[in-house]
Amino acid sequence: MNEQTLTLTVNGQNHEIVAAPRLLLSDALRDLCQLTGTHVGCEHGVCGACTVLVDEQPSRACLTFAVQMEGHAVRTIESVGEPARLSVLQQALHECHGLQCGFCTPGIVMSFEAYLRDHPDPSEAEVRAVLSGHLCRCTGYQNIVDAILLAARRLREARAA
Fold first, then answer.
1. Mind listing the pLDDT tens digit for each residue in 73-84?
2. Domain that holds residue 102
3. Which of 65, 76, 92, 157 has the CB geometry, 3.0–4.6 Å to 151, for a possible disulfide?
4. Is the dihedral of CA 144, 59, 45, 76 positive or negative?
């Protein structure tokens, strides 16, 4: 079926792939780019597990075709923090016990990487509104909310210093 060669820019690196027009970005990232941190849950855009940043804006990778991404910058969870040094948000999630199985965590982190950049002092209600686009079956969400508010405070303090 009319496969085409395209270049995906993911986490600052170019990945030349051959893809059918219907290949989803989530599948391209996981199967062709070997970036498995983007999780696929519902495949309907409801659960938020597949959230990545496209041109620094949250996007559901399970609803986006890979061919649409040529000329755009995609960021995945692999671009956030490092194994030996977590990002401020990842560290806060760890400290506040804001994750259990971790399946939803990459999507939540990516959404809030963008949100906290643009909204450095969110209220609890604002955090909950953004978080409502993510389904977590393990936690009661309160620890996630606490972690995001902690990360926001730490990011503000770092900017002020």
1. 999 999 999 888
2. 88-160
3. 92
4. negative
